[in-house]
Amino acid sequence: MYGGDEVSAIVIDLGSHTCKAGYAGEDAPKAVFPSVVGAIDQMDVDESDDAEKNSGSGESKNNIRNVDGDKAKGKRKLYVGSQSLGYRRDFMEVVSPLKDGIVADWDIVDSIWDHAFSRECLLIDPKEHPMLLAEPSSNAQQQRERAAELMFEKYKAPALFLAKNAVLTSFASGRATSLVVDCGGGSTTVAPVHDGYVLQKAVATSPIGGEFLTDCLMKSLESKGIAMKPRYSFRRKEIRPGEFQTVDLDFPNTSESYKLYSQRVIASDIKECVCRAPDTPYDESAYSNIPTTSYELPDGQTIEIGADRFKIPDVLFNPSLAHSIPGMESFAEIAPSVRGLPQMVIDSINKCDVDIRRELFSSILLAGGTASMQQLKERLEKDLLEESPQAARVKCLDWRQYIGFSWFLPTDVVLQIRV
């Protein structure tokens, strides 16, 4: 057992899109950065660094090597954190430590934790703090053991607790029983929690998450001739006061994965700024004359976005819409097995004991970044009211009330932890 008011427990939540780290009991995480990293084969590092000296970026070779989050792992050099990923490097690939939400590369996780503890983020000594690691509902025992081994043997943490994401979200809302709808970057998971435990047999998952919606938007805009130039691929030159010209830059050694990552950053911002869930199921003819919304791209180009503002979010509710988006044809292979969000909720609750279904319907907690989309809560509540039993009292709770999630848990609860 580990306790004491003078000690702050550290919470780390490694998601498919973002890693969050901070102190238990606070309103929000102290550090939020991408969960993907840049990776360069060690044989290419020196050549890449020399080339970047002349790339016109103004960042010296010495500064690059001293960026926190620069970690050499075996034959790779890893670059962790928003600052490191924001700097283009020759031959740098963007890789994720996760596959289907489960850790597949522990070297990358090690580097991510190093970065979280560094002066760029928390500036702590992990030996002095008990640790709480958030994990997906589907995490295997082997993964839990590996996380504990790394945390104890390398970081010398005095205590460790691994908790399911859904349970932490439920507790943060003050509930021991709820239905947690986690709309994350890589997937969407619906998990019923009863008396503080996830009911594994009733967990429902979908590959449609925030990144899938981002790709749908990006492909749709590309089909309309809108090119999203990555920020590294141009510079804006002032030709006269107040007037700028875009000058293209050529970096032939830029990897396709880094180019795609840079384009996704732009498309994700467009999605967050202009998209909203439609009040009713999307219909092409009904939205054909919808007013457009303007968005200025980093290169100064202003684009107009119309029906896509509503069509892309509705893919969460009706996955078959993705078929009509040019470039998303590969989704057709798995589409028949993918359910919309309301159906996932209904199916999950129906797999639970009949005695707790009423309580689950009235305690639907929305979590994850995609859940912040405008009108998503209202649309989900509306669809569920139409499909749920008449006796059910459907209530969806806004995720922003519980954005702190595991950080919002009372400190005295988190501190009483052990393996």
TrEMBL record:
Region (Disordered): 46-69
Gene3D superfamilies for the chain: 3.30.420.40, Actin, Chain A, domain 4
Compositional bias (Polar residues): 54-65
Secretion signal, residue range per the UniProt entry: none
Pfam family, one: Actin
Highest rank taxon of the organism: Eukaryota
Record-linked SUPFAM superfamilies: Actin-like ATPase domain
InterPro entries for the chain: Actin (IPR004000), ATPase_NBD (IPR043129)
PANTHER family: ACTIN (PTHR11937)
Name by which UniProt lists this protein: Actin-related protein ARP4
Organism, as annotated: Medicago truncatula (Barrel medic)
Encoding gene, per UniProt annotation: 11439919
